[in-house]
Amino acid sequence: QGSLCYFKLRDMDEDRLWEMVEGHRYRIVRGVSPSRLTPYLRQAKVLGQLDEEEILHNPQFTNRAMRVGHMLDLLKSRGKNGALAFLESLKLHNPDIYVLITGLEPSIDHNNFSDLIESSQLTECLAKAVSSLQEELSQEKRQKVSLLQHCRKLKENTARLEAEAESLRGIETECNRMKRELSAHFHEALKLKDELYGLSLRYSSALQEKDLAITRCRSSQEELYLMKQELQRAQMSSCHQREGSSRISGDAQMQTDELLKLTKENEHLKSLLELETFSVVQKDILEQNLDDALEGKQELLNRLHSLREQAALAENQRKQCWEEKENTLIECQKMKVDCEIYKEQISALQAQIADLQKERDQAYNSRDTAQLEISQSLLEKDSLRRKVFELTNEICELRKKASMGNSVLTDHCPKKKQPLVRMHAICPREDSQDSLMRYLCHDQMDSFRSCSPIPPCKLSLQRRAMQDIGEMHQWEESKPIWTLSCLLCSPLSVPMRRRLAQRFPSRITTIAFQANALLEQISIIGGNQTGIFIHRVTPGSIADEMSLSPGQQVVLVDYGVMEPGFKAVLEDATLEEALWVLEKVNGFCCLSVKHNMEGYKKLLTDLNSKLVTSGDSFYIRSNLCLEKQDSGELSVGCHNILHVTDTVYQGQSQWSACQVNPYTMKDMDAGTIPNYFQAQQQLIALIQELAQKNMVSRKVMSSQRKLVRIVSTSNRINPLWSTMECSFSDSNKPKGNIYFSDCFTLSFPVSPRNCVSLMPYTFVRHYRPGQPRPVLVVPALLRKILADKLCLSREFEKCPSGIQETSTANVNVHACLDLGLESVQELLAMDIYPIIILITIGEKNAKKIKKALQRLGATEDQLLESARKEEAQLETVSCLYRSIAPDAWGDLDALNSCVRVAVADEQKKVVWVEQVPHRSF
Asked: Which one, out of 58, 718, 726, 795, has a CA that is 20 to 30 A from the CA of 885?
């Protein structure tokens, strides 16, 4: 039979043999090792030594698949002998592939081989093949032994981990018990926190007064120091003026003495002239001397006159300095008196601070004693709780026995009247007992708070509110509604007094009243852009009696007295959200309103002139396709940007929206779209329909993926809207967690099956960058190929691979980014808005760039796989992207031009970015 099979292959023509081989080329490339087949093929003389070296050691062939493919190409050039030799080598080394190709059983009989190889060489090849198979068998046995040892170790580790898990379960139960006890300990510590808060306020006010007194004392000391300096300067100037006046008076006295002396000499000369007779020459000399003496006398008189004037001026200056000195001394005395007064005030403040410190120490001591008392009371409470649990178990057992006895009696006795319902208050049923236990557990959870003596800050209070909202949806369904019954159904209790209106510095008035069916008492208009305004008030209603009037803006609704946790800020809420909130109010509530007649009148003017239909205005991104079914509806595609102008259009549960021009942001086609709840239902139905279809090929999957964009968020946090009822009057629909758009948080009883986290719309913001935006091409392999071609133009340049380097790149050109899609969110946080270009690739396109892929060491399959992965990853990016169809380009040059055109077009458009889903409070 083997020889017949051999002759059957021998009789086949060359094309038939190679058609059989090429039909299983994929399996051959993946399962054959060329280093094991080339010795036999070289012995059969279908490959030479150079061919073997080229197959095994050519650097162009980077993997085994490329080497096997080249070997098949060489054998195909050898014709029929190449095919027969290749099949015979598979018979020796890969019999399973031989059976797959030929459908014949492999036989190593000498007669079944061709004449391409001699018998001695064939025997040698068979021996080598047997030895290689024996080696593989021994390797498999060793691997089996090692795997058995590894499996034994894994079993031992599994047993050890199960024991550890059991011990951890016990520790976890003990930890839960300790947590419950710890949460109960903090319930009574809240009173001490309030007292400590008051003491801290008093202490802070005292510290402020102390700082104020210190600043006043420092300012008075500085003024005193300045006055001292001015006094010293005045004393120095007066001393200098005294010295100058004394010097001037001494000079005047010397000049008067010299003048008297000269007059005496003159008189003496005159007497000598009368007594004696002189000659003419001596007489002329004496006359000349007399003239000189008279001239000197005149000069001395002039000098004396000037000195007298200077002396009079110096005397006037001395008098002024003396007066200034007296004034300075008077001011100095006043400053001394003020300083003494400040010293007395400071001493009084220090005494008050000492008293406050004593009071603080006493408060600390009282806090310690109170903590000791609390700990003792908690111990007593624990013991009492244990007794209560024991008594509850006994009551349950007695109730079971009593019910069994009653059932026996009812079988033998006639039926009696139904007992009064109020008897359940004495002997409660099991369901009420369970409700009581759940209520107590929730109280213990709520009592767990911070025990720090420092007053809580604003962020801490907001964090507590978020924790309450997160915990409430787990237990709110089973919580008994006792607060409402206690407030409304107890006729003997003291009637509730209406709280007075509180006025805040921001002119917001809080009004508390009985708001039964609030929307029947008032009607509202407005939206998130203008605010929510009261439009009409029913005459004679409670709202009318509480002075609510048209034009008042509703800022906050507090319904926490009737339903704990119901508190909503309507300052930035849409009209749909405001109507939903006010519809739920039916009882005692608090409304915070403020007067804003200018905004109200402007809104009425716009409504009457039909410029707007409501006060709503925001932009969204559609995550599904909405087909136009009726007239008036808007046809919406996935990733479209819409401008919502009315959330309660014509009083129905639908939105009025417009298509947005991507270049100018102007409104284009207008129509109605489903509201958030209806769109969410359509999104779920569309996803279910796509999941039920059988995906025939990848092309079908890629085309269907464009119909929907799956964006989800946490069940507890929805950044835009939440699951709302389609009709505001239907109260039988399930309730859900309500998180309104960036304005407030509201929580209600919720069922886990109703917490749908899929988002049909996402809130977006617009930006207009004034500089060229960076470019990010997807997939990464094509980005590397196109980077060099794009950078040949002056409009593009390469950017280093790094976030920080991207921020410092040239702002006058488009930077070609070499980053992953996971870095896009970081770029958006840095106000860098990249242009994302998605190049969709088909198998024909991949073949056309095969040479460029080989230079990068990649294959066509790797390119297609990476393109599919990165295209799926693009759905999570919070900005829009541009797609280039596979039919738009045929080679790299055409693709380069397409990318340039797309970048230039995207640079002209407005940038839309989704808001971050998880906000910080």
From this structure: 795
